[in-house]
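Replying to the earlier thread about multi-chain prediction with a worked example.

Input:
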Amino acid sequence: MVSGYGLKIKMKRNSSTKKEQQFWAFTFLFFPLMLLAIFVFIPILFSLGISFFNWELMASQQNFLGVNNYIEIFGDKIFYKAMLNTVLYTIGVVPIQTMLALFLAFVMNQKIRGRVFFRTAFYIPAVTSSVVTSIIFVAIYSKEGLLNSILGNFGFAANDWLTNPHTALISIMMLNIWTTSGYFMVSFLAGLQNIPNSLYEAAKLEGASRRQQFWHITVPMVRPVTYFVVVMSLIGCFQVFDQVFVMSDGGPNNATTTMAYYVYQNAFRYFRLGYGAATAIVLAGIIMIVTVIQKKYFPPNPY
Amino acid sequence: MVKSTLKYLILAFSLALIASCIRDKENTIRFSSWQSSPSEKRLTDSLLHCFSKKYPEYNVKFELIPGNYSEKIQLMLGTHSAPQVFYIKDFVAPSYLRYDVLQPLNEYIDKDTSFDIDDFYPQFLDAFTKNGIIYGIPKDFGCFVLFYNTDMFKAAGINDPPKDWAELEEFSRKLTKDANSDGKIDQYGIVVEPSIDKLMPFVFQNMGSFQDKDGNLTLNTPEFLEALEYYYGLYKKNIATIPTDVSMNNTEEVFGRKRAAMVISGGWFVPQLKDQYTDVNYKVAFLPKGKQMATIAFTVSYSSPKENLLKEESWKLLSYLTGKEGMKVWTSTGIAMPTRKSIAAQLDYINHPEYKYFMGSVDFAKVFQVEYNERWYSITQSAMQAIFYEEADIPQKLKQMEDDMKSLRIKK
Amino acid sequence: MRAIKIQKILLFTILSLGAMVYLGPFIFSVIVSFSDNKNLINQPGQIVNSGWTLRNYIYIWKDLPFATWLFNSVVITACQTVTNVFFSALAGFTFAKLEFRGKNLIFGAMLASLMIPGIILIIPKFLIINEFRMINSYPGLILPGMISVVNIFLMKQFFETMPKDLVQAALIDGCNYFQMFWKVFIPNSKPALAAVAIYTFQGTWNEFMWPLIATNTSEMFTLPVGMASLRYELLTDWPAIMAGTILVSIPTLIIFIIFQRYFIQGVASTGGKE
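Result:
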């Protein structure tokens, strides 16, 4: 009898909380979801819509073009150049950055004096504004800048790094490696600290050298972190913009025009918002394909 | 914890609220321009000062826009935040005029009897007129002329500036020399630039054009090709140089630092020569003649946006700046030439030893406007660079330029 | 033993050299920013000898609208950090602890939107803000960044680790769900809130593309946009530009050094969870 009474109360409570939960959930989510709808969900669809128009900022009416923007993209030499630059940039930056970050983390993971200092030193470029680091590097790369004066000591001729079409892109790549490798080092460091020490002890007992330990224990064990780092830096590299804007404006002769910069240029320099949106969608498609391929062929956990 | 979070929340929002309340006074006329030199800024300030002295009831706020001026103004027009009065370059005017964003000025001009619109040189007014509607009043003009180093000319035994293409090439050859005979040329005849604006005078001299009356491109024509081949030929024959070859920023610097005997430039170069390159003895001349005399004129207008709460006030400022009084203040320094005939007559620049070449060019100078999307400029720039840096095939490049630009045509 | 010692020294040398590469550019820019001579940017040695001055900092602060930009950056960063922490906690809590219709659908849509690269949002966001007539205004700069899916995701994951009993206990105590969120869950989630706050702070303070597009006049610029415009305005007045870069970096640096633990934890927690 008593227990039956209790059950009744419980049931009643449960059903009322369900309704209550529904109410509170929608109250709580109302404002966040509205913002997300206006600034994320709708824009995704809207951008697809814009890409079918000859969308002009100052015009009162927009002309429908159908897929013409996309057709134009496939005949656009600068678009190909931008794509090539972006791919070169990504291929250059991602592996070096990842390996450098892993290497630094591996070294840092040893018991060493001044660890906190080193960690801070490596991390500072990552927390600094990209505009600031770009400006500093413009000074360093300039013809009379620091880099040339250092290289001059070794007998190299002065090079204007950012206006020479052969070195401009590489210079920006170096800057990116410098800024973000410290950030990813911290990711790796966390991954390394999760590796149980017993694994290394066992390896040592079997006479594995430090190098063997690195390749056979460290590298496989941080694979999930590596996956994360590669995805993050891929996405970042494919969309590189700030550095290009500040350092070279896409020049000389489009040698540093990247896809994101080209999107910006079309939309906000030439005011071809429809064409810009179409290039952005193509870029997004490429990024998504690459991440899917990566997930398929280089999964975070092979098992 | 909760309380302090709430406190920060309130603090942040009140900050934002206060910040958005700090706004300009209601009747402030915002005025924007770019600045090509500090002395131009001083002149603008003093002109605006004259205006507020005369009309103390108006507030004018000068908002200078550094870098990428035209883009910024177009963005502001498109985003409903344009200043009330601003400059427009003739060069980019077509991309403004095709939209309904600028204030037609005809009714104000008709009402304002003292303004006297017929006083303006028609070709400059035309640059800002479409279908008879005037969207901007030209404030001044400048044009390309030839600057030549008289010491170098004397040393080479030449007395007068070149009069035609043949002489330009001949003199350039005589003026190109390797003074210390180390195999490197120290002094070139002329400094050119892989840029369309420097090329266009030659095209016009050769009876060519960029586009025809109907707006079709005319790059792939014998006249254009011949002009480009002549222009590039000066460089190819090693009697002309380009700034990057001598590690300098622009052609004016090359001339100022005595690495070239001639340069094509405009009135804005004169103050630089007087302040920075004091040891250069130079003279000015008309550009040499091709099949005809021709040069490019540059003019800038004052315009107003259509979306504007202060239309009467804006016209007051605009008409003062381009009126007889304002223009006289502005042009009496010689920074640019007047676009009003009456002011030109008053200042008598046609008899001035230097300015007469600028003022005298009015008769044959063409305003260079292109009715294609802004992107046309980067396309031509890249093509010119490819020709100069990579020795690209010229007829093929011209054809390619036309193809690349076709889709960018501004529809009427 | 000896081999280990040599190895230690070797590692230490590698790290020191690395630290020099990573900190060198900043040291260089500090030195240049105090330099008295505008023409010396190539030889740090010569700069050190050329005389020190505070003039560049005074010039940046007094003759340029640097204070305005700083104010804008502070307002925007403060607003976005506070709203992000609050809304992402609220939404994360809802997804972690409440049952409601359409939960999986909404959450799935959010996860899917994470897959979409941000670049395609720029143009439509600009047009939407322009429709609201908010370009070149604080609302236009703040609204689009008031919430982020990543933060919601982080908070959801954090709240999921908290025991379900807490909900029951709070209900029995007679709390409604907001009180429960505010009085029980929030006070117990300091590390996660700190991570979200720090992430948002860092992202907003350094954000470049959106303020670049959403502002037109110098009085609405944020620090990064203002700095980028200085590069063209001051051209080769490197000491003044470098003074600006140092001033921009100082706030982030201070915050980083104070909250270093949270930064590192934050990176580590996002890294492990993919």
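Residues 2-50 of chain A form one domain.

Feel free to reuse this layout for your own posts.
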